Amino acid sequence: MAPDHGPDIGAAGAPAADARIGVDVGGTFTDVVLALADGRIVLNKTTTTPRDPGEGVVAGIAAVLAEAGLDPARVAEIVHGTTVASNTILQKVGARTGLLTTAGFRDVLEIGRIRTPGMFDLRWRKPDPLVPRRWRLEVAGRIAADGSVVTPLDEAGVRAAAARFRAEGVEAVAVCFLHSYVEPAHERRAAEILRTEAPEILVTASCEVLPEIKEYERTSTAVVNAYLLPAMRVYLDRLTARLAERGIAAPVQVMASNGGMVGIATAGSKPVFAVGSGPAGGVTGAARIGNAVGAPDLIVFDMGGTTAKASIIEGGLPSLVTEYEFRDGISSPSRFIKGGGYMLKVPAIDIAEVGSGGGSIARIDAGGLLVVGPESAGGDPGPACYGRGNRRPTVTDANMALGLLNPKALAGGSLAVDPERSRAAIAAEIATPLGIDVTAAAHGIRQVANVNMARAIRAVTVERGRDPRDMALMAFGGGGPLHAVDVARLLGIRRVLVSPVAGVFSAAGMLAAEAEHSFVRAVLAPLATVSEAALDAARAALAAEGRHALATEGYGGEAASLRFAADLRYLGQSSELTVPVAGSLDADGRQRLAQAFHRLYAETFGYSADEPVELVNLRVTAVGTAATRIDFAALDLDPAALAGGSGTRMVSFERDRPAVAARLAPRAAIAEGPVAGPAIIESYDTTIVVPPGCTARAAEAGCIAIDLETA
Description:
Elements: E1 4-9, E2 19-25, E3 29-35, E4 41-47, H1 53-68, E5 75-81, H2 84-90, E6 97-102, H3 108-111, E7 136-139, E8 142-143, E9 149-151, H4 155-168, E10 172-176, H5 185-197, E11 202-205, H6 206-209, H7 215-245, E12 252-255, E13 261-263, H8 264-269, H9 277-292, E14 298-303, E15 308-314, E16 317-318, E17 320-321, E18 324-326, E19 342-344, E20 348-349, E21 352-354, E22 360-364, E23 370-376, H10 395-401, E24 409-410, E25 415-416, H11 419-434, H12 438-460, E26 472-476, H13 480-491, E27 495-498, H14 505-510, E28 515-526, H15 532-552, E29 560-570, E30 577-581, H16 587-605, E31 613-624, E32 647-651, E33 660-666, E34 675-676, E35 679-682, E36 687-690, E37 695-698, E38 704-707
Parallel strand pairs: 2-5, 5-12, 6-7, 6-10, 10-11, 14-26, 26-27, 33-35
Antiparallel strand pairs: 1-4, 2-3, 3-4, 8-9, 12-13, 14-15, 15-16, 15-21, 17-20, 18-19, 22-23, 24-25, 27-38, 28-31, 29-30, 29-31, 32-33, 34-37, 35-36, 37-38
Helix pairs in contact: 1-7, 2-7, 4-5, 10-11, 10-12, 11-12, 12-13
């Protein structure tokens, strides 16, 4: 699919010199948003190029620059959400990776936590380690838990390991020694020797990525980082070169899993921090909008072409975790489901992901049940209605058959579709085998997809001790507004918000992000008795690291700030919760911190205990605030550019009930007054479904609100 020029949204005027571009690479489409200083934005959707995602990125950027009439040299910054890291793991196409570790610990990576994600799933198979056993080498040398040297490092053994790695054609090596979070001298020396003896091999030392207690988690994180290094570096280097060829010398910032931006150098050396890069942009943007619409507590629902994601915003801030497991199927950093994927102990937005997107394929399984996803038709060949050779029905085809989507073209008229192809695919693959009609089969596909997506939302709400009925649901992505009301009903949610520029909102949300760098220091001491001087020294060291990282990217003075947190647990436990730290850590400050931990523990697990609290780690997030960030409340939107149909269309909203005439309205109609359901609201980037009994109305910051109380 050639790049399609999206609408130019906002007041006309000369392009500004400080233009910023947000890019989100999805499984189906690559979304690009160009934001100009006068509030004008230009949108573009281009089919993702899986073999080389950079092609789609550069094509989309070129399209928005041409649409805006902007000289490429005047682009100030590009913020990029990339799926290179996550796809590299999913497709198992990372580097030939080795591991150098302390003698006796080569199998830590494979043993893991000795847990399974489902106790009664007899078909479950443990993921293969990213480092095969023959490339997991040991070396003599031992650091004690207090940082003292028990056994000197065997440097000759490290050199022998380097020779072995070279002979085996290993491309990247992770170095992880026992207790290096306390004293990293052995690890640093081993990494130095490896880089000298085998300069062609990329090396990751665990102390450079995760100087934190827990041997398996630290080893796994370092291994994943090493595994990703070549792919991420090649991609970023190639992308930078392609941009330069088009006259774009603007710095590229990469979205990190925690919702902040990191410079291209950091992303190239620590790609493990960007595995959750893509989905983070939308959550960051939703957090900015939530306060503007009077909904600081939000459920974020992002449905794209391949997957659907869910997260929560509390008090205007995304919910963060300090570890998660990356795996196939539903990917969730749940504290209650472990052992199903590759452990990454890095700060990340708490996002659950499930393979139910617009392109997810519906089929009948061996037991005769209807299944939707995780296999996707992607953007090419795409759903059956695209007419590009796919004859299997997708969620998009179900929506097309029910009349929920424009039967002539999508994406503002640039993508022709044929609903008869959708009906034929559903009939052949679903309706006929089940002995039902096409409409009933389409409703079944849609219902299964909705239930899958509701499951993802429960993973970040109910499983975290949060009641989804107390929150509003903010929907975006190309398919989010199509399914939002039905998903909300499954969860008892009474208010749905549709974000502005919903179909490309993840890319737009990246332009609301701040630069963020995270650092950690192990403490491991009872909170009540730990030395205040020791805590102050640790905080000072963390602050220095954070400010240095920001300074290298040009953030200083008032643009730089620090946020501290502490990892706490009850004495004797093996897992911890992260609690913000405000103010001094004197005796009173530590008592307040303990009380905050008790409250968080009760919210998360349903109870708290009268047990001593242990401080495991201190953390800092160094935040750099960009001089210009997109302000959704101040966007000068031009409703006329948000084209859509008018009149009526027959739509089937419920199974076993006849189709009804639904009003068709462009998104611009919301500015004229509420739109009562049944209605279909269309725009360039998405379609909003307003079922019977619901009413859509304009809300703050360019959002559309749908209240379900009367539904």
